[in-house]
Amino acid sequence: MANALYDTLFAPHRGSEAVFLHLPDGSTVTYGRFLGRIAQFAHILTAQGLRPGDRLAAQIHKSPDALALYGACVQAGIIFLPLNTAYTGAELGYFLENSGASLLICDPDLTPDTATPTLTLTATGTGTLPDAAANRPTTFDTIPRGPDDLAAFLYTSGTTGRSKGAMLSHKNLLSNAQTLATHWRFTADDTLLHALPIFHTHGLFVGTNIMLLTGGSMVFLPKLDTDQLITHMPQATTMMGVPTFYTRLLADPRFDAKLTAHMRLFISGSAPLLADTHMQFETRTGHRILERYGMTETNMNTSNPYDGERRAGTVGQPLPGVELRIADPDTGAPLPRGEIGQIEVRGDNVFQGYWQMPEKTAEELRPDGFFQTGDLAREDADGYIHIVGRAKDLIITGGYNVYAKEVESLLDAFPGVLESAVVAAPHPDLGEAPVAILARAGDTDPDTDSLAQSLQDTLARFKQPRHYLVVDALPRNTMGKVQKAALRATVADVFQPS
Ligand code: MCA
Ligand code: AMP
Description:
This protein has helices spanning about 5-10, 30-45, 65-75, 90-100, 130-135, 170-185, 200-215, 225-230, 245-250, 255-260, 275-285, 360-365, 405-410, 450-455, 485-490, and strands at about 20, 30, 55-60, 80, 105, 120, 150-155, 165-170, 190-195, 215-220, 240, 265-270, 290-295, 300-305, 315-320, 325, 340-345, 370-380, 385-390, 395, 400-405, 415-425, 430-440, 465-470. With about 500 residues, the protein is α/β, with parallel strands linked by helices. It has two domains: about 5-375, Rossmann fold (3-Layer(aba) Sandwich); about 395-490, ANL, C-terminal domain (GMP Synthetase, Chain A, domain 3), CATH 3.30.300. It has a nine-stranded mixed β-sheet with strand order 2-1-10-9-11-12-13-14-15. α2 (about 30-45) packs across α3 (about 65-75), α6 packs across α7 (about 200-215) and α9 (about 245-250) packs across α11. The protein is globular, with a radius of gyration of 23 Å. The N and C termini lie far apart (about 60 Å). Adenosine monophosphate binds near residues 291 and 296.
C-alpha cells in the first residue's frame, strides 16, 4: 500500500454515510463528511508549503476538526505534533523550536508569541484554517508513505530537564491499533464514549484509531464531565478512561448496574487503577474494568484478557506482537519469574527514538531493540504483570505525567529556596498530585504564594505543586542522595480528607 495508515484507517470510509461522531448537541458527523474535511485541510497544509516529513504543531481544543487535522497530516505525509492545551506559551515555544515545526495550528485564545507561521482553529470549527479550507476540494491525492516514515511526535517530559519528542512511525500506530481492535473485539457496531483529550496516545491513538479501523462511532465529548458521561452512556457500548473517570463515576449515585447493563466493555489505563476501585466498580455495575498498560514511546504493551480473568491490580499480559521482559535495570538481563525488575518491551509498537536526541535514545533503547520503560514490575505465575513502582522520578496526576526534575529546576531558582524536592502524594481524585518540599536558603521561609504565582506563566497548571512544605534541609542518605521515599511518607496525607 502507498500509505498504509491512511489507506487502512481512513480511505475505506470515503463517501460513507455511517456516523463517525455523535456530538453532545445531538448532531452527527458522518465518515464521508469527515474524510472530505480531511482532504480540504490537506490541501491547505500543502498550500502552506508543508511537504512530507515536515512537522505541524497543534495546540487546539478537542473538536471534530481537530481530529480531521490529524487525518490531514496522515494523508499529506506530514508529521503531526499535538500539544496539551494546558501548556504555557513558554512550554509551547520550546516545542516549536525543538521540533522545527513549519506551521502551528492554535486556538485564538492560546495564540502565542512565535515566529512560526500560524493558522487558527476554535472548538466550534471557526478560524483561519477552516476559512481557508471552506472551498477546497473534498478529495486529495494521498501522499505515499512507508511503514517506517514518521506519523507523529509526542513530547514526553524527561528525567533531566527538557521534553523529548518521541517519534512514532506509521507502522507503530497501525500495528498497535490492529492489535488492540482485535484483542478487545471492537467492531463497526461499537460506540465509544470518548471524553479523553486527543493530544495524547490514549485518546488519539488508542481510542480514535481503533474506531477508525473498525468503522465504529464515538460519542465525542469535549472533556470529562460526569453528567455528560451519564447522559450519553445509553448511546455507547464501550468507554475508555484514566482512573479518575472511574472514581468520579463511582462517586455519583446515578451510576449503577441499570445504567451500564448494555455496556460491552470498560477500559482503564495511563495510571494505576486501584484494586479497590476495580472491585467497587464490579460491585456497583457487575462489570470488571479491563486494565491495560502503555507509554507514549511504546503505545500499548499489556492488557488484561477480554475473555479470561481481568485481575484487579494488574495490567494483564503482553499483547500479541509485544515481547516483554522483566529485567535487571542495570544489565537488561531477564530476571526469574516473580522477581521485581524493570519492564522492557520490543515490537512494532516501539517508537523510533527521540527527535534529534540520539544520546537520550541510546540511554533508553538497548542495542537489541528492547525499550526500557522505567516501570518496575513482577510477573505472577499466570503471566500477569504487576506494576509495583517506577524507577523514573515521575508523578502521574489524573493521567498526565510530571517529571519532578522539571519542576524542581524552577523551584530551585526561586529566591529563598536552597534546594527543592517534588514528590507524589496520593490524591483522592487525581490518583497522585505533586507536592513541593523546599529547603530554606536563609532564616526566613520563601514566599510560597509568590512562588506559586511565578509558575503560572512557565509551567502547565497540572505540573504545578498543589501543596508546599518548607523544611530546614532535605533528608539525604549516606551517598548524599535526597531520600524521596522519606519525603513521600511525610506528605502522604496532605490531600486526604481530614
Ligand atoms: C486538570 N487539572 C489537573 C489535571 N487536569 N491538575 C492535575 N492533573 C490533571 N490531570 C487542573 C486544571 O488546571 C484546573 O486547575 C483544575 O484541575 C480543573 O480543571 P478541569 O479542566 O476542570 O479538570 P478536569 O476536567 O477535572 O480534568 C481532570 C481529568 C483530565 C479528567 C483527570 O486531566 C483528563 O482527562 N486526564 C486524562 C489525561 C490523559 O488522557 N492521559 C493519557 C496520556 P485550577 O482550577 O487550579 O485552574 S497517554 C498515557 O498516559 C499512556 C500512553 C497510556 O498508557 O495511556
Ligand atoms: P506517558 O507515556 O508519558 O503517557 O506515561 C506512561 C506511563 O504511565 C508508564 O510508563 C506508566 O508509568 C504509566 N502507566 C500507564 N498505564 C498504566 C497502568 N495501567 N498502570 C500503571 N501505570 C500506568
